[in-house]
């Protein structure tokens, strides 16, 4: 699935990063239709606006279907037939649609048959891996050139750097909903998902359908030249991805800082549960037994500080400490307890 993305480039740098060649081989940059509706974010969630690439012919009938345009669209598809007066009243989640069932659902089948295919743009997407009852977030993206850094600030005049950024290009479906009583039309989209590729399946069993390369993007967008059934052959898992673990700060969609995508180091040491009396014994073995000092961490168990061992009477031998501990574990009273009885 895909429920959170990062899109850190400003509108103009998004446009430059989407350079392509039209059917005549000319190098082009898509124009924005509504750049004022888009704002960068390291932590985009459904119902926010994201940059979407589509054929310009959806808006201008007398142009080539190979020409592209950028539109800021709402994440979470609102079908054109939706009868409520407020899109927030949508009762089910349409941020993702499964590739194996999208032709069976009216919300997705209708737009697909009309050629309403789009490419959702992002630096990458977040996915959460289940780990010992907790969720560890990962950031997943296309491999980048060595000089490219996601966390660079938005520099408006840096044309070269913008075009070196390889945005993640996810296959989507869009629709246009118009309010019942008049008003501005709302363009919205859903991201198509597939079974996860082997490389990312350890993180999650689903992933977005990613279009790897401009030829795949061209075929997906050119609805006039590429029929639906032919375009659907492009929907499959992609292995050409990189990923790294990130901070759980991204769990809250209100957090919007570069820290969301910065890599972190995971503590892979397992949490071993040990009883209080065993903690004392581990410390005794570590601090009192000369033979154990050279063993290192071969037993794989964590080491606790000596605060669990209380100072005892002077001149106690190792044998008496061991005897007392064994009696305690067996439920036998200590010498002091016997005298009190």
UniProtKB/TrEMBL annotation:
<dbReference type="GO" id="GO:0006508">
    <property type="term" value="P:proteolysis"/>
</dbReference>
<dbReference type="GO" id="GO:0016829">
    <property type="term" value="F:lyase activity"/>
</dbReference>
<keyword id="KW-0190">Covalent protein-DNA linkage</keyword>
<dbReference type="InterPro" id="IPR036590">
    <property type="entry name" value="SRAP-like"/>
</dbReference>
<dbReference type="InterPro" id="IPR003738">
    <property type="entry name" value="SRAP"/>
</dbReference>
<keyword id="KW-0645">Protease</keyword>
<keyword id="KW-0378">Hydrolase</keyword>
<keyword id="KW-0456">Lyase</keyword>
<feature type="region of interest" description="Disordered">
    <location>
        <begin position="285"/>
        <end position="341"/>
    </location>
</feature>
<dbReference type="GO" id="GO:0106300">
    <property type="term" value="P:protein-DNA covalent cross-linking repair"/>
</dbReference>
<feature type="region of interest" description="Disordered">
    <location>
        <begin position="31"/>
        <end position="53"/>
    </location>
</feature>
<comment type="similarity">
    <text>Belongs to the SOS response-associated peptidase family.</text>
</comment>
<keyword id="KW-0238">DNA-binding</keyword>
<dbReference type="GO" id="GO:0003697">
    <property type="term" value="F:single-stranded DNA binding"/>
</dbReference>
<comment type="function">
    <text>Sensor of abasic sites in single-stranded DNA (ssDNA) required to preserve genome integrity by promoting error-free repair of abasic sites. Acts as an enzyme that recognizes and binds abasic sites in ssDNA at replication forks and chemically modifies the lesion by forming a covalent cross-link with DNA: forms a stable thiazolidine linkage between a ring-opened abasic site and the alpha-amino and sulfhydryl substituents of its N-terminal catalytic cysteine residue. The HMCES DNA-protein cross-link is then either reversed or degraded.</text>
</comment>
<keyword id="KW-0227">DNA damage</keyword>
<feature type="compositionally biased region" description="Polar residues">
    <location>
        <begin position="40"/>
        <end position="52"/>
    </location>
</feature>
<protein>
    <recommendedName>
        <fullName>Abasic site processing protein HMCES</fullName>
        <ecNumber>3.4.-.-</ecNumber>
    </recommendedName>
</protein>
<dbReference type="Pfam" id="PF02586">
    <property type="entry name" value="SRAP"/>
</dbReference>
<dbReference type="GO" id="GO:0008233">
    <property type="term" value="F:peptidase activity"/>
</dbReference>
